[in-house]
Write a structure and sequence with these properties.
The structure is a single chain. With 298 residues, this protein is of the alpha/beta class. It folds into two domains: 3-163, Rossmann fold (3-Layer(aba) Sandwich); 169-297, N-(1-d-carboxylethyl)-l-norvaline Dehydrogenase, domain 2, CATH 1.10.1040. It has helices at residues 13-22, 34-42, 51-55, 68-75, 99-111, 124-130, 141-152, 166-194, 199-207, 214-217, 241-258, 263-280; strands spanning 3-7, 26-30, 46-47, 60-63, 90-93, 115-118, 121-122, 133-138, 155-162. A six-stranded parallel beta sheet has the order 3-2-1-4-5-6, with helices on both faces. Helix 4 (68-75) runs parallel beside helix 5 and helix 8 packs across helix 12 (263-280). The radius of gyration is 20 Å and the shape is globular. The protein binds nicotinamide-adenine-dinucleotide. Residues 7-13, 30-33, 36, 51, 64-66, 70, 74, 95-96, 121, 124-125, 239, 243 line the site of nicotinamide-adenine-dinucleotide.
């Protein structure tokens, strides 16, 4: 049985680690939060006292942390985890981070003779729980074949995008488009409602017309249109505004690095930043519609 160390048991990492246990892997996990460790233990995940202890006998090390700085501080430096991971182990970082950070950590792994992939995910907390995530992978194609059985226990689609960092670039492209589409969908529905249209009928029409999208059909930003969307439960749960803001910031940095113009991505980043400053940073990102309409008043 393969031994896996899992670092970062938050909204995504917790259910992902639990799915590895369900698939028969032996998992030793660590998180800085005692509550996250307790939830993981209840789901049958083995819990370690530190990240170093978790990786001690690991054949695969997976991390699922919030941002670049967490990933760099976990792995890099003289006291970093990279110096503790057993020879021959495979390292997979599933966090969404800057492509440059992913390349830096991959170089540190290579310097120690370890194989590494960046494998950010799409599919949200529901996909993490149902083991239906999409993995967006950067790194060596042969290393991905080695990782495939592990990734398949947590997801159903795997895309190889290119060398180290390419998974992160592709993930940022997806999320930049998503951030723009969500804001555009909210703006369009707000315009219709201001003209007296019913938001549900308008959304049903859009869902079978040329503006159809996940934002209209699955995560509609208007309260009451879709019973199971975050908008219909006070924008709780789902994908946080501040995580979208982080991803749009990373997309902007990635654009500067290669001189790409991303005017809509930048505009969307400003909207999510305003939403965060309005106190909605912890709400689902579809709450960005609050910057475009008084949704509580309708
Ligand atoms: P989260 O904040 O719920 O979980 C992160 C966890 O990492 C926390 O439990 C925290 O205590 C832990 N942590 C931080 N530093 C640590 C360290 N040094 N050692 C051990 N544990 C540490 O975040 P999340 O929603 O699980 O997201 C994780 C990553 O996945 C982010 O990069 C996010 O952008 C990405 N992502 C999230 C979603 C989503 O819907 N939530 C979807 C796709 C991708």
């Amino acid at each position: 049985m393969q031994r896996i160390a899992f670092i970062g048991l938050g909204n995504m990492g917790g259910p992902m680690a639990a799915n590895l246990v369900k698939a028969g892997f032996q998992v030793q996990a660590f998180d800085l939060s005692a509550a996250a460790l307790e939830t993981a233990r209840a789901a049958g995940v083995g819990v370690a006292a530190s990240a170093i202890e978790a990786v001690r006998e690991a054949q695969v090390v997976i991390s699922m942390l919030p941002a670049s700085r967490h990933v760099e501080s976990l792995y890099l430096g003289d006291a970093g985890l990279m110096t503790q991971i057993p020879a021959g182990a495979l390292v997979i970082d599933c966090s969404t981070i800057a492509p440059a950070s992913a390349r830096k950590v991959a170089q540190a792994a290579a310097a120690r003779g370890l194989e590494m992939l960046d494998a950010p995910v799409s599919g949200g907390t529901a996909g993490a729980a149902a083991a239906t995530l999409t993995f967006i992978v950067g790194g060596d194609a042969q290393v991905l074949e080695r990782a495939r059985p592990v990734l398949s226990a947590m997801g159903k689609n795997i895309f190889h995008m290119g060398d180290a960092g390419a998974g992160q670039v592709a993930k940022l492209c997806n999320n930049m488009a998503l951030g723009v589409i969500m804001a555009a969908t909210g703006e369009a529905i707000a315009l219709g409602v201001a003209h007296g249209l019913d938001p549900s009928t308008l959304s049903q029409m859009m869902a079978v017309s040329t503006s159809r999208s996940w934002a209209t059909e699955v995560c509609n930003p208007w309260p009451g249109v879709l019973e199971n969307a975050p908008a219909s439960r006070g924008y709780t749960g789902g994908f946080g505004n501040d995580l979208m803001l982080k991803d749009l910031g990373l997309a902007a940095e990635a654009a500067v690095a290669v001189g790409s113009a991303v005017p809509l991505g930048e505009l969307a980043r400003n909207l999510y930043s305003m939403n965060s400053k309005a106190g909605n940073g912890g709400l689902d990102f579809s709450s960005v519609v609050k910057m475009l309409a008084d949704v509580e008043a309708v």
